Fold Kynureninase.
Amino acid sequence: MSSPDPAGLRARAAQLDRDDPLADCRDRFLVDPDVVSYLDGNSLGRPLRVTAGAMTRFVEQDWGGRLIRGWDEQWVALPTELGDRLGALLLGAAAGQTIVGDSTSVLIYKLARAAVDAAPPERDEIVLSDDDFPTDRYLLEGVAAETGRTLRWIPTDRAGGVSPEQVAEVVGPRTALVVLSHVTYRSGFLADAAAITRLVHDAGAPVCWDLCHSVGSVPVELDAWGADLAVGCTYKYLGGGPGSPAFAYVAQRHHGVLRQPVQGWFGRSDPFAMAAGYEPAAGIRQFLSGTPPVLATVPLQVGLDLYAEVGIDAVRAKSEALTAFAVEIADALALEVASPRDPARRGGHVTLRHPDAKAVVAALWERGVIPDYRAPDGIRVGLAPLSTSFAEVAEGLLALG
Ligand SMILES: *Cc1c(COP(=O)(O)O)cnc(C)c1O
């Protein structure tokens, strides 16, 4: 093992923190003094200090004060208004194409089922990565079984991700739908979404992007890519809190064409008419199902305020610096990096390989150093740019040495 020079790395971390234009943002988050290094902000972001007050205000004023009147006054419109805000701030999506509600899993099902149902029968393959996040794989297994389609798995490098060339090899006249993660949950590989979307379209099929690990850490340009569908969660980088609702994007051209399978009253035209028979609402509202999770969007709303202030480009710049620093320390400790080395192909987290990863992570958690364990031998280091300092990265990674 090479000698890591902890003092030198700590000094570099201190300098990087002094030079960091976003350094002050960290003070806006609740930082537990027992947590030496939080390296899982890509799985569950820290809460902002203002979140507790925002929740209390919501309970006392909006809910307690407005009661049932709140629905007409603001909550019925919330799924689309919040969707538009998220779309404008972080998704590169023009208004009217994004909703907030349900969970990512439920939205993957709704969108994938709608897209596959709309494909002609000879398009009998759903294309996906064999290393995508488990819920994506399971849901698509279910959609394939329900619709009589088969799954076309792209064999994926565990330390990398899916390239445009690999997609080009498998798409064609049999493709019904392609579902891929923009940033992969394991290695942090950042896919070339624009190129892949073009390739899938050339094959005559739509693509659904899973943005769970990219939203709030890397710029996303759904409209510019020409994306068809996208989903993502809000409890990772966006700090929506445990189980906060997900979002879905459906490009305007698919409204009124795709038909989603969970046809509840909130997706019906004029739900409060309580009329006989389902007919889809106009526009993106047809992808809603039931009563939206209003209460659960409060932390997300204050999280978006911070993104509005800072901007995604500054967040991405810090994210690149954080992951580069993590790779530098891993190299100094002679730990194998199982993530892309090219920052342009890397999202906001880095996975390191360790033969005793499970035991090492368990021991680190005892000491207030909190990375994630990824079976069989991965230690995943997630670096939420708004709430992670370089000093924290140095302390956390030196603890691995
Ligand atoms: C976190 C994550 C999910 C989570 O789905 P839930 O329905 O919120 O459990 C889905 N896909 C990817 C790629 C993820 O990283």
In short: The pocket of pyridoxal-5'-phosphate is lined by residues 103-105, 133, 135-136, 181, 185, 210, 212-213, 233 (CB under 6 Å). Residues 312-332 form the longest helix (21 residues).
